[in-house]
């Protein structure tokens, strides 16, 4: 959504945020801006619009309203206000929210049901600040075919299509005659139109972009307020599930990873995710993502690989196939890749496969062939994109052309640019390897 909103839009957004804060406070979440007996002022406030570290709009976020010290507890959210399987069982019944039903699907059913209730839902103030559609989340698994075409050359394209297909299959199983959706409709837990695929897609987009896996609870959790923290790959802030004294439920607690100054945005890491994963689940990419990667797939060619039958059998004995995938990272070149191409390029003169030391050059001819194989694989991956990295850079520098791309086109451009940069860097790294 655009950060250039009309004042009325901003007023409505702030009203929803105030209602969320009031609801949380009424259920035991301490958000007071002033100190009280035995409690320091709450250190955070909701910002209706923020920008990420690449200065791209990133929606709502949490800002430090005063100085925050490393290790400070930023908030405590009780389990009773969270969306969990435990709460789903209580609302839907154990015969619908069965242990056999996946956790994402279980929580999606609860979300759809509560959304259909509108203002009557216990979670209404929370639901009112969630994205209103799956499109608003922007995750690539809901992109149109035309939008996905902007990812040509990247594995992100097929990844999004496969994810979307799995979502369709999951919904078909839920909506099958006698399935959970049928049962919910029969018991008047939710009207049929509230359980459509579009509503399921919305619920799953919300869950994949906002839910937390809490190890201590062994549960997937949608935690109101906690899910307002935006992503930074450099953040080490942690969530913990703690059990207060004399309570049968958990609290979701977040501890600051460092000092924050007043009005500084407080971040959380969503995990060590590549830009493909970030775009697939969250709808954004990061230019300076230390966890970005391109998976390069290399294989033995039955028609061109020397000693192919011998090598294929050798790999099978080790539990491997003829084709292997290697992650190329922003700052690292996998040694295993050059080791595999040394193996793949071995001729009779390099000796036995079982005794060769692939961590070092086997011969001048083999090393030249192995390095050429890696470079050729990288160049083939680069050739799959419709534009070169230099052409992308010129497009990015053209403000008019960039504006025509739209938000998703811009995200796709940046993702592909970063992947091409990784591939080009890998070529330079191979050429610079010491002999």
Indicate the topology.
Elements: H1 7-26, E1 44-51, E2 57-64, E3 73-78, H2 85-92, H3 103-117, H4 124-127, H5 134-137, H6 145-148, H7 155-174, H8 180-186, H9 197-210, E4 212-214, E5 219-221, E6 230-231, E7 238-242, E8 251-255, E9 267-268, H10 275-281, E10 293-299, H11 308-317, E11 323-329, H12 335-344, H13 364-383, H14 389-397, H15 399-431
Parallel strand pairs: 6-9
Antiparallel strand pairs: 1-2, 3-8, 4-5, 7-8, 10-11
Helix pairs in contact: 2-3, 3-9, 7-10, 12-13, 13-15, 14-15
Description:
The protein is of the alpha+beta class and 435 residues long. It has a three-stranded antiparallel beta sheet with strand order 3-8-7, with no helix packed on it. The mean pLDDT is 93. Helices cover 43% and strands 13% of the residues.
Write a short abstract of this structure.
The chain has 435 residues and is an alpha+beta fold. It contains 15 helices and eleven strands.
Number of domains: 3
Distance between the termini: 52 Å
Content-based structural category: alpha+beta
What coarse outline follows from CA principal-axis ratios?
globular
Structure annotation, total helices: 15
CATH topology of the largest domain: set domain protein methyltransferase, domain 2
Radius of gyration, rounded? Answer: 26 Å
The largest sheet is: 3 strands, antiparallel
Strand content: 5-15%
Order of helices and strands: HEEEHHHHHHHHEEEEEEHEHEHHHH
CATH architecture classification of the largest domain: Alpha-Beta Complex
Share of helix among residues? 40-55%
Q: Give the full name of the CATH homologous superfamily of the largest domain.
A: Rubisco LSMT, substrate-binding domain
CATH class of the largest domain: Alpha Beta
Q: Mean pLDDT across all residues, rounded?
A: 93
Q: Count the beta strands.
A: 11
> Could you give the order of strands across the largest sheet?
3-8-7
The stretches of 5 or more residues where confidence is low (pLDDT under 50) are: none
Pfam family, one: Rubis-subs-bind
Domain SET: 42-271
GO biological process, one term: methylation
Keywords: Methyltransferase, S-adenosyl-L-methionine, Transferase
